[in-house]
Write a structure and sequence with these properties.
20 helices; four-stranded antiparallel beta sheet; alpha+beta; binds flavin-adenine dinucleotide
């Protein structure tokens, strides 16, 4: 086997271990790739149970009051620090342990409710929302999800009230996007009671202020010469723990403490392993599912701020004797921000509900949410920035800070390019396996194979001839629902065609993957918008409201999203890919001067 084949084999093995182990339930997004509309999971639009809504409303009121009085995002940016008094206040309000079970001092909130809280923080200060995410969404998540009762009892109470802080440490110099390439080593002591950890981590939020760090390190696989990743709970008081840089100077989210640390022969008790030995990558990816969901919530909050700022400026600033809101090119931007903010909220709520309902399979949806909301927020900020003209460039307005802060979103917790590929490849795996079944049977028929191939063929054929039903309750949405159903059908057709045309090389064809992933993301976003709008219309009807709710933003989103989907699918056959590769090849071949 040559080096390239060996690398491919390694990647496939890692991907199998990460993504495909365990039962393969048909999640909503996977359903889309199969040509199905798994309506039960997205309709009716999820709601927070009444009892928890009361608790959430109280928390939001308390949080708003605290943030109004004590949070100064501009000062946090200037000082490159979140004051301890703010962290303590967030702890008192319960924000730092919202989803932790009550028995460990948490609030026992659902993800949907947690997202509402993060939206509120994201609306005001990205440094603070990223700090909360680093601590609660990912820092203590492995402990919450994979910790034993003893581990939770020992660590959680102080972490959920903010007395202590958490961090999640995966990234290293050689393990950025290639997260599986962790080099930090952990070897067992002879008596097996401890592990000795050595290596360095970088770009870790909260590294130097955390009291507990979930650290990914490579452990030997017993009985083989292989290694696998294991999650360890490390504390900075362990001898050999060294902070190399407490606060790396940076462009945005300057209030967060992004650090580098080294472990030199750090002795960690085996009781500090989180989850199973060798299953650390699974732990890490599951943790990141939560991080990506609250990413969506924070972006939603920030997009709402963009809308507020855009509207306020467009209604007051006059040029050519008119307020800016009278110009069509300004209206277009404001309408787009309103449409995107509506969709981001809907998508976050639906994704949060997947976690709350205990679905075993939401990896695709959380990746979609992360990519979609971070890309849309970047556009929103660009639009509101443009509407403000030169004033946006000045440091007395929050816009330049918001722009600096938002840029990390497309990179952190999985660069969007990597997640885009992931969405396409994981999504296509289901139909791809069915085609493989059919192909293998044609090449080497056997009785067992024929029956499996028959089932696969029936499924593929069924999806090809059946336009999925998108069940809405409101008559005025039937046309949108039919359009969405037809687009899902077209999408499935395009996926099948790509799989049949390109076969295995599709694993490397990122431009094809990007179009498929983009179409899938817009299908998911449209579904969430349609579901939310349907529920709002029905709610108003049940309430006996005289006027129907204003659904202009949702309507615009659906129209624009459907247009984008048609564009992505059309570009699968009508594109400039060859010219792109030629120009890239030419540039990449030129030695840099
Ligand atoms: C402010 C900040 C806070 C962070 N906090 C944490 C934290 O708390 N914990 C933690 O573990 N990590 C954290 N990170 C690390 C973050 O998750 C990584 O920066 C991110 O995963 C990207 O890795 P990288 O920076 O090494 O970029 P690289 O892996 O070098 O990638 C650079 C670029 O190359 C492109 N690229 C890479 N691979 C592919 C591919 N397969 N296909 C197409 N394009 C590709 C993408 O455009 C990508 O942006 C943080 C980073 C920052 C900047």
């Amino acid at each position: 086997m040559n080096k390239l084949d060996a690398q491919r084999q390694k990647e496939i093995q890692q991907a199998e271990e990460l993504l495909f182990a365990g039962p393969q339930a048909l999640g909503f997004a996977k359903g889309l790739f199969q040509g199905h509309f798994v309506s039960d999971w997205v309709m009716p639009y999820p709601r927070i149970p009444a009892a928890q809504q009361i608790e959430l409303d109280e928390t939001l009121t308390e949080l708003r009051q605290f943030l109004d009085e004590h949070l100064d995002p501009a000062e946090i940016d200037r000082q490159a620090d979140i004051p301890r008094s703010v962290i303590d206040g967030l702890g008192r309000v319960g924000v730092l342990g919202l989803t932790a079970p009550k028995e460990y001092g948490g609030r026992g909130f659902s993800q949907m409710a947690n997202c509402k809280v993060l939206e509120e923080i994201g609306r005001r200060c990205a440094s603070t929302s990223v700090f909360v995410n680093a601590h609660h969404s990912i820092g203590i998540r492995a402990l919450l999800l994979f910790g034993t009762h003893e581990q939770k009892q020992q660590w959680l109470p102080k972490l959920v009230n903010g007395e202590q802080l958490g961090a999640f440490a995966l990234t290293e110099k050689e393990a950025g996007s290639d997260a599986a390439n962790v080099q930090m080593q952990a070897r067992s002591t002879e008596d097996g009671s401890h592990f000795i950890l050595n290596g360095e981590k970088r770009y870790i939020t909260n590294a130097a202020i955390a009291h507990e760090l979930t650290v990914m390190a490579r452990t030997p696989v017993p009985g083989s010469d292989k290694t696998a990743i294991t999650a360890f709970l490390v504390t900075p008081d362990m001898p050999g723990f060294e902070i190399l840089e407490a606060r790396m100077p940076k462009m945005g989210i300057r209030g967060t403490a992004t650090g580098r640390f080294a472990l030199h022969d750090v002795k960690v008790p085996k009781e500090n392993i989180l989850g199973q030995m060798g299953k650390g990558l699974k732990v890490a990816l599951t943790v990141l599912d939560f991080g990506r969901t609250t990413f969506g919530a924070c972006c939603t909050g920030a997009a709402k701020t963009c809308l507020e700022l855009a509207v306020q400026h467009a209604n007051t600033r006059k040029q050519f004797n008119k307020t800016l809101g009278n110009f069509e090119l300004v209206k277009k931007k404001i309408a787009r921000i309103a449409a995107d903010a509506y969709a981001m909220e809907a998508m976050t709520t639906v994704t949060g509900s997947f976690i709350d309902r205990g679905l075993e399979d939401y990896m695709l949806e959380t990746a979609m949410l992360k990519v979609f909301t971070t890309e849309r927020l970047w556009e929103c900020i660009n639009d509101v920035f443009q509407i403000h003209g030169g004033a946006a460039y000045m440091a007395d307005l929050p816009l330049e800070r918001m722009m600096r802060d938002a840029r990390i979103n497309q990179i952190g917790e999985g660069a969007n390019e990597v997640l885009t590929s992931f969405i396409a490849l994981v999504g296509m795996r289901g139909p791809g396996m069915e085609f493989k079944e059919i192909y293998d049977t044609m090449m080497k028929p056997s009785r067992d194979r024929v029956s499996k191939a028959w089932a696969a063929g029936k499924n593929r054929l069924g999806a090809t001839i059946r336009v999925p039903d998108v069940p809405v309750q409101s008559d005025e949405l039937l046309a949108h629902a039919r359009r969405l159903g037809r687009l899902i059908w077209r999408f499935n057709f395009a996926v099948n065609r790509a799989l049949i045309t390109y076969r295995e090389p599709i694993l490397d064809m990122q431009l094809v993957q990007e179009r498929i992933a983009n179409a899938a993301m817009d299908l998911f976003a449209s579904t969430c918008v349609l579901s939310r709008l349907d529920s709002e219309i029905q709610f108003a009807r049940r309430n006996g409201d005289a006027a129907p709710p204003d659904h202009s933003a949702a309507d615009l989103f659906l129209r624009q999203s459907f247009r984008r989907i048609r564009g992505f699918l059309g570009a699968l056959t009508d594109n400039d890919d060859k010219a792109v590769f030629a120009a890239a090849k030419s540039s990449l071949a030129k030695p840099s001067s």
